[in-house]
Design brief:
The protein is built from eight helices and five strands, in the order βαβααβααβααβα. With 214 residues, the protein is of the alpha/beta class. The chain has a single domain, classed as 3-Layer(aba) Sandwich (Rossmann fold), CATH 3.40.50.300. A five-stranded parallel β-sheet has the order 2-3-1-4-5, with helices on both faces. Bound molecules: adenosine-5'-triphosphate and magnesium ion (MG).
Length: 214
Amino acid sequence: MEKGLFITFEGGEGAGKSTQCRRLKSALEEAGHDVVLTREPGGTAESEKIRDLLVQRDGGNWTPMAECLLFFAARQMHVEKLIKPSLAAGKIVICDRFTDSTIAYQGYGHGFDIPTIEQIARLSLGDFQPDLTFILDLPVAEGLARSLRQKEGAAGRENTEDRFEKLHMDFHEKLRAGFLDIARKAPSRCVIVDALQPVDDVYLMITQAVRESM
Ligand SMILES: Nc1ncnc2c1ncn2[C@@H]1O[C@H](COP(=O)(O)OP(=O)(O)OP(=O)(O)O)[C@@H](O)[C@H]1O
Ligand SMILES: [Mg+2]
């Protein structure tokens, strides 16, 4: 059986992760691959319930540790029930956000101890890691402008997932620097992509890197 491939997309809001995930999925399927597109937090029925808790919480008083454990509780079930079995069946798994997002948001963004997050990751996932991670890098103002335009386009539809976007600009700057730091520390897995480019150009870079890793 051919070996599966685990690809994750990371970066701040509006960077184009979901756009590129969908596009890569279609292209790989057209090329005859079996592809699973999933997202975090979430990805399985149980983990989506934890997602609801995480994204709808309205600025409550959770401890950073409790929040972090919830992310990894969702992630552990996602990995065991969906990601690993799909990879074992030779499928390509594309995941919209993964562990790097927890390190970037909870660690670099909110200041929760990064070695502690890494310990929780090791405890819950062992040494399981993506084969390839795209870090979509974009100036903060452009990412937020894209998110805003997208929301205006969907005006009238109640958005219950606003929590992440309500955070301030300096937080988003920390996030951006955090993702770049993560990429610099794991150069064999991470590819930094200039997400300011047009969708087609971003996509071209991504497909080239995927082809090289197959
Ligand atoms: N390269 C690009 N150039 C211009 N606009 C883009 C580009 N990529 C995506 N967009 C647009 O920006 C908006 C946000 O894109 P998308 O939803 O893919 O981002 P995301 O990283 O998944 O955001 P979020 O973190 O909020 O889920 C969409 O309206 C999308 O069409
Ligand atoms: Mg998205």
